[in-house]
Structure formats: C-alpha cells, structure tokens
C-alpha cells in the first residue's frame, strides 16, 4: 500500500513540476520534475518486485523467487541515478552556462513546490509509520532495522521521500535566490545539488541491494538465537559450522554442520535431524529451508574453511 500511495503522489507531482519548470524557466524546477519522474519509475519497479518475488518455488528455482525483489530494487536505484541525477546535472550545468536567461513566472513554481512538499510529506509520514511498525515487530531500533532489513521496498520509499523533501527545499532556495539576486547561478547550483542528492540516494540503495543479491547472512540476532538452540540440542556435541543466507524477504536458508553423539544409530540420527529442524522452523518462521549435516569436529578441511570465514570468533 505504501508503494501505491507513493506512486500516485509522485506521478502527480512530476506533471506539476514539469509545467512549473517550463513556465518559470527554472533549472531547479526541471531537475525536480526529473526527480519525480525517477521516483515514479522507481515505484513501478518496486511494484514489479513485490509481485514477482511472491511466486512459489518451482523446478528451475527451488529456493523461490524472493531475490526478484532485490533485483528490481537495484534497478530502481539505477533509475534514480540515470533519469534523475544525470538530468539534474545537465540542467544545472546548462543554467550556469546560460546565466542571462530570463526568469519566467515564479508564482506557479512556488505553488507547485508548496503543494509538492505537502504531498511528499504525507508519503514520507506513511513510510515512517510503516518502518516504525516493522521495527517494533522485529523488536529492534529503527536505525538497526534500516541497516539490516531484508525488504528493500519500504526502505527505498522512505529514502526517496526524504530526498524528495530535501530536493523541494533546494529548489525553493534556488528559485528564491535567483529572484532576489537576479543571478541564475543560484538556480543552477540548486539543480546540481539535487543531482548530488539523487546520486547519493542511488548509491545507498544500490549498495543495499548489492549486498542482498550477493547473498547476505541473516540478521545477527537470528543467527545467535539459532546457534544457541543447536548447541542445546541433547544429540549435538559440537556445532562445527553455521551458514545462513537471505533468499528473499523474510526467508532464510540455514545450513548447519553438527558433530552428533557417536552413540546414536543411523535411525536415531535421522530422527534427531528431523526433530531439530522442525523445532527450529516452529520457533523461527523465517527459516525457509534447513539443512543439517553430520560431520566430525576433527575434520581438518571443514575446520580450515570455518576459520578462514569467521576466524576464532566462531569457537568463542
């Protein structure tokens, strides 16, 4: 719902800014129009991400399509840079080169900026409310949630709405200073600042989704809780290795290498693995797939791989 609201708002704002930019001749207003177009494209891509990532697992994709959400969110970051930041840079440099251009009707531009700020504020407050709710459900702070969240859609909406509010203030400042001083340098500088703002926004989102696509481990709190449950299992003597990977929003792949009690028979070992996996899945619903592998703790190859990955911290 947050994405749909943001999509409708950004589409309306983009049209208003484009008209105001043409009437006023303001580079900053045109840059903001490009900004809203980029946001509209972003929301469309996020809708595609939400729909395509919910498809069930099949033969070709046995772990499901959860990472579709990360892929389309990455494209959204690219869209913000290409259709927003680059356009703002072009308009800004053009304004700096053509300083003698006359300023047009600024009244319409101010009205659009004010209306756009109100609409963006509504979208931003809705995104903040959703983030707070989800952070509270995860029993964590908003800052930690935004850093570790495996759903990039809400974070993308919050970040682009924050950038939109700042961009509107920059456009207002550029427009006003141009009118007061008669120098179009301020208008061009505001457009360039909007371009920098969008480039930073695109980088943050791209970096976030890059980590998710590569295969980031699950939240540290979840990993620690799972590790504690595994070492407490009566059949387990040593937890040799523990691997987790996000396969989608709210979906985690778990692989644990365990040294079981040598007194267990083959049937006992099978039942132990089934029971442990069932208990983990019941306690941690986000564990989508669980693999438990019996291994000897003294195996040198496995120990070397664990030490190379975690160092001695895993054994502490």
TrEMBL record:
Its main location: membrane. It is a multi-pass membrane protein. One of its GO terms (biological process) is zinc ion transport. Residues 3-206 form the Cation efflux protein transmembrane domain. One of its GO terms (molecular function) is monoatomic cation transmembrane transporter activity. The chain crosses the membrane at residues 70-96, 108-125, 157-177, 189-206. One of its GO terms (cellular component) is membrane. InterPro entries: Cation_efflux (IPR002524), Cation_efflux_TM (IPR058533), Cation_efflux_TMD_sf (IPR027469), SLC30A9 (IPR040177). It comes from the Bacteria. Keywords: Membrane, Transmembrane, Transmembrane helix, Transport. It is found in: Membrane. This is Cation efflux protein transmembrane domain-containing protein.
């Amino acid at each position: 719902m947050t994405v749909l609201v943001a999509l409708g708002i950004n589409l309306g704002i983009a049209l208003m800014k484009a008209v105001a930019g043409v009437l006023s001749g303001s580079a900053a207003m045109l840059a903001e129009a490009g900004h809203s177009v980029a946001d509209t494209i972003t929301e469309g891509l996020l809708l595609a991400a939400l729909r395509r990532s919910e498809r069930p697992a099949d033969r070709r994709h046995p772990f499901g399509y959860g990472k579709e959400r990360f892929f389309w969110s990455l494209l959204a970051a690219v869209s913000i840079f290409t259709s927003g930041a680059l356009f703002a840079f072009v308009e800004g440099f053009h304004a700096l080169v053509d300083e003698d251009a006359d300023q047009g009707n600024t009244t319409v531009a101010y009205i659009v900026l004010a209306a756009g700020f109100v609409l963006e504020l509504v979208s931003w407050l809705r995104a903040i409310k959703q983030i707070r709710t989800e952070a509270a459900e995860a029993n964590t702070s908003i800052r930690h949630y935004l850093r570790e969240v495996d759903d990039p859609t809400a974070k993308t909406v919050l970040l682009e709405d924050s950038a939109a509010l700042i961009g509107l203030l920059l456009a207002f400042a550029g427009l006003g200073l141009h009118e007061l001083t008669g120098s179009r340098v301020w208008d061009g500088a505001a457009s360039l600042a909007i371009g920098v703002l969008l480039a930073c926004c695109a980088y943050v989102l791209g970096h976030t989704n890059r980590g998710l696509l590569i295969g980031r481990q699950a939240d540290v709190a979840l990993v620690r809780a799972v590790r504690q449950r595994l070492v407490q299992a009566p059949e387990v003597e040593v937890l040799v290795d523990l691997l987790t990977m996000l396969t989608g929003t709210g979906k985690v792949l778990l692989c644990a290498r365990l040294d079981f009690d040598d007194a267990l028979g083959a049937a006992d070992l099978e039942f132990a693995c089934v029971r442990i996996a069932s208990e983990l899945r019941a306690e941690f619903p986000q564990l989508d797939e669980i693999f438990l592998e019996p291994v000897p703790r003294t195996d040198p190859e496995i120990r070397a791989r664990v030490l190379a990955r975690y160092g001695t911290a895993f054994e502490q």
